[in-house]
């Protein structure tokens, strides 16, 4: 039977019927996996945002003697459209991967296990601290539709 309220216990079925915990060891490993995936989500979001900044910067922003990487990102993938650049396609792939990870984390929280919930929240906070809380760049992101970002 599926829980509809938060509960605390080691018996969890997470995402797949084959991912069941029935001992404290498997439960602890599941919580560690949730924490690591949450940190990885924040890492991938940081990579996606940095890639977006690099691919959207123009050649006029480079200083003399600096190597400009934007021509590599602006080559056309398909001859028919000017919107299909390598940078845009790669950014879309990163967005898709990050969205999938985010939705898997959301579904894991929907197991309503308190330990899983705490592990994911702590992992997101640690990942944010490690990868996204730097003061070196001020980035405003308004295009992320995922609630768990």
What labels describe this entry?
149 residues; two-stranded antiparallel ribbon; 54% helix; copper ion transmembrane transporter activity; copper transport
Identify the strand order in the major beta sheet.
1-2
Task: Work out the helicity level.
Answer: 40-55%
Strand count: 2
Question: How many structural domains?
Answer: 1
- The total of helices stands at 4
Describe the protein.
- This is Copper transport protein.
- The chain is an all-alpha fold.
- The two termini are 30 Å apart.
- The chain has 4 helices and 2 strands.
- A two-stranded antiparallel ribbon has the order 1-2.
- The protein has one domain.
Write a brief caption for the model.
The protein is mainly alpha-helical and 149 residues long. The protein contains 4 helices and 2 strands.
Outline the fold blueprint.
Elements: E1 12-13, E2 20-21, H1 24-56, H2 70-73, H3 86-109, H4 114-132
Antiparallel strand pairs: 1-2
Helix pairs in contact: 1-3, 1-4
């Amino acid at each position: 039977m599926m829980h509809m309220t938060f509960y605390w216990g080691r018996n969890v079925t997470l995402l797949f019927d084959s991912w069941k915990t029935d001992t404290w060891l498997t439960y602890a490993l599941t919580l560690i996996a949730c924490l690591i995936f949450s940190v990885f989500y924040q890492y991938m979001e940081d990579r996606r945002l940095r890639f977006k900044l690099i691919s959207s910067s123009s050649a006029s922003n480079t200083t003399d003697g600096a190597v400009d990487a934007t021509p590599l990102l602006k080559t056309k993938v398909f001859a028919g459209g000017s919107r299909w650049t390598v940078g845009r396609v790669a950014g879309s792939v990163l967005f898709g991967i990050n969205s999938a990870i985010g939705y898997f984390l959301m579904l894991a929280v929907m197991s309503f296990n308190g330990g899983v919930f705490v592990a994911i929240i702590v992992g997101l906070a640690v990942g944010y601290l490690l990868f996204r809380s730097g003061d070196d760049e001020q980035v405003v992101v308004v295009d992320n539709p995922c609630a768990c970002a």
